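Take a protein:
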Amino acid sequence: MNQLLAECARTAIDPGKSHQRLAQLSNNVTDWTGVLAEAESHGLSPLLYIHLKAADVSLPLPVKRDLQGLYLRYRHANRVRGQLLVEILAAYEAAGIQALVIKGAALAHGFYPEPGLRPMSDVDLLVKRTDAYRAQELLTELGFQAPLPPADRLPGKHLLAAIRSVEGLTVSVELHHNLFNIGTRASLELNGLSGPPIPFALEGVTAYTLPHEEMLWHLCQHLTLIGQPFRLIWLVDIVGLAERYASEIDWARVERDYSLVLSALSLFHYITPLSETLRRTAPLNIGRAPQGIGQEFVGWPHHSIRRQRTTGKGYGRIFRDTFFPAEWWLRLYYGLGGARPLCWYRWVVHPLQVLIWGGQLVLERTGWRKPRHKLRTGV
């Protein structure tokens, strides 16, 4: 993992030692083009820009211009999305529809120092199942291209994305009636929250999002989906949220109901060290540093066998990557944290899970099971 990006994977850094370390790491960079490309893939370009700027790091002029351009682009895009979101929420309020802002939009406005520091690809809202159809109709009335499903047959966990162009930007809105796919163990609807929604400021008005405990759980579930790359911005979301609201989060409930959150935090400590305050407040068992910190799952079915073969990987390497992934990833995916024994999961649970994935693909291809979006383990 790129150490410069890992150092910038936080909303705020210590102006003392961290600034010195940023300067040292920057001086060792020989390929800034590669660093910028990696920062974009991790969603960290705006944070990289502001942290290097705060540390007064001297950058090659083209690199400085590119980073500044990305920062300004995301700031503009999130301002446009925020203003449009205010319009949508006002229409829903007038229609008596309760809607919570979730994922990127809530995080960008809810706890990042400024919204433009949190890139997002779309806007996600959670509404009641009974309101979902009407909520999508209202998006059509607001000028969106919003496909409507049959009134009595809502798809999956969210409706098809609604699209609208504003100020040269294509804004995509997804209406969720459940945060998880039907048929998975996890389920969370708007009327099933454990506590009142959390208010936050959105372009001068008050919007609402999930309680902190459910927000952390949803973010961790999303991060550990199979079939997608690990992005550092998701780590920033989770650690930043936990750090900022450490004293307000019901950690006893998190430990009881959402232990995956504690597991993820303990493993993230080795990428971006957690504060002493959070470590004292949350019941974390950091454990020893696992092998392969930050390494993704690169086996099947994350990558098809055909695709892996085209990159020159032999069947033996594909087998090892599939059945014997990095320890850090195994601990993250199966919610083991840094302290729980790994042997059972390494030699029994994970091989069985690979076989389950294979069975699911067979059923999908033979028409016995409808394809779903990337799912967490069912083990």
Observations:
- Residues 1-59 form one domain.
- The chain has a mean pLDDT of 91.
- The radius of gyration is 21 Å.
- The beta strands are 99-102, 123-127, 162-166, 169-176, 198-202, 205-209.
